[in-house]
Amino acid sequence: MKLLVTGGAGYIGSVVATQLVEAGHAVTVLDDLSTGHADAVPAGASFVEGSIAEPGDLTGFHAVLHFAARSLVGESVAHPGRYWANNLGGTLALLDAMRGSGVGRIVFSSTAAVYGEPEHIPIRETDPTRPDNPYGASKVAVDTALSTFAELYGLAAVSLRYFNVAGAYGAARERHHPETHLIPNLFKVAQGERDSISLFGTDYPTPDGTCVRDYVHVADLARAHLLALDACIPGRHLIYNLGNGTGFSNQEVIDVCREVTGHPIPVVTAPRRDGDTAVLVASSEKIQRDLGWKPEHTTLRSIITDAWTAVR
Ligand SMILES: NC(=O)c1ccc[n+]([C@@H]2O[C@H](COP(=O)([O-])OP(=O)(O)OC[C@H]3O[C@@H](n4cnc5c(N)ncnc54)[C@H](O)[C@@H]3O)[C@@H](O)[C@H]2O)c1
Ligand SMILES: O=c1ccn([C@@H]2O[C@H](COP(=O)(O)OP(=O)(O)O[C@H]3O[C@H](CO)[C@H](O)[C@H](O)[C@H]3O)[C@@H](O)[C@H]2O)c(=O)[nH]1
């Protein structure tokens, strides 16, 4: 297929673009390089530097895989307008261009942040969406728009709600500036770029007092996009959670990073970070049942080892 990958110069988009090229698809990456890197676009894909807000004529593409977004929770609270303009406004421009060019299929990067504080664990797709920050709200708004476009215009849409994405695929790795995620920040200490890591909150109602997250390996996550592409049904908007189904505490992540890197990684206990939820763990039963997806890298050690190998 001829595929457009928005945000394909970013962490997750570049891994999916790589797998799509490997599967024999003709891939074009559209990215404005606001947080991405031109050298992350895989060899074998074409690159167009530009914004989803002005996607141009998309005639000839069979489908769009849409990763382009701003995705920092803290920034979204400080500058909500950026999130509405880029994540919602940009996506609406992209959907209009798709419609005008006869492109009827989209796979969209949604997030666990759409759920807000969960009522129960594991979180299912049928649970209420009550985002507690503008980033999550912008993703809920896009999910709503996709449902409407499916119903009114026959769009075939799949939203994948990622939990905590980690790991690397070959050399394709996480490179955010600033970096807010836990694992890459732990590596910065191990590489001597920082003296210590701040551990945000040790008084959560969890077994060791630190937050619990569901880490999914980026290679497994990427594979789900290829399955989703084939599962698209005109007139339907399908929604799937993507996680391992197992929670690991921040303290466990720190311990495994110490083992894998061989560095003591000093920790400084810090207050809770605004907007953090104690426990986020996905039920991925639906995508396992409907699309036959199954994560292969389920241990924290394998996820962290792959990420560490790629940054060294
Ligand atoms: N990393 C995670 O754990 C995680 C979790 C849940 C959801 N997501 C979602 O997955 C997607 C990819 O996340 P990531 O971690 O790879 O982020 P990233 O910042 O590495 O990648 C996003 C890419 O989109 C590009 N971009 C942003 N706005 C654009 C625009 N208007 N036009 C064109 N390109 C634009 C950026 O330059 C960047 O290359 C995002 O939609 C994010 O919300 C990520
Ligand atoms: O230096 C750090 C960085 C993070 N943490 C903690 O580590 C845990 C994980 O934090 P990350 O920033 O790595 O990931 P989040 O769970 O906050 O974010 C993920 O889940 C969000 C939904 O809540 C969004 O979907 C987001 O894109 C996705 O990366 C949190 O308890 C956080 O407080 C620290 O203690 N110190």
UniProtKB/TrEMBL annotation:
Entry's Gene Ontology BP terms: galactose catabolic process via UDP-galactose, Leloir pathway
GO function term, MF aspect, one: UDP-glucose 4-epimerase activity
Pathway(s) annotated for this protein in UniProt: Carbohydrate metabolism; galactose metabolism
Lineage: superkingdom: Bacteria
Keywords from the named record: Carbohydrate metabolism, Isomerase, NAD
Record bears the keyword S-adenosyl-L-methionine: no
Cofactor (UniProt): NAD(+)
Enzyme class, spelled out: isomerase
Gene3D superfamilies found in the cross-reference section: NAD(P)-binding Rossmann-like Domain, UDP-galactose 4-epimerase, domain 1
Record domain NAD-dependent epimerase/dehydratase: where: 4-243
Enzyme Commission number(s): 5.1.3.2
InterPro entries xref list: Epimerase_deHydtase (IPR001509), NAD(P)-bd_dom_sf (IPR036291), UDP_G4E (IPR005886)
Keyword Zinc found: no
Catalytic activity entry: UDP-alpha-D-glucose = UDP-alpha-D-galactose
Quaternary structure (record): Homodimer.
Assigned protein family: Belongs to the NAD(P)-dependent epimerase/dehydratase family.
Protein name: UDP-glucose 4-epimerase
Naturally occurring in which organism (per UniProt): Acrocarpospora corrugata
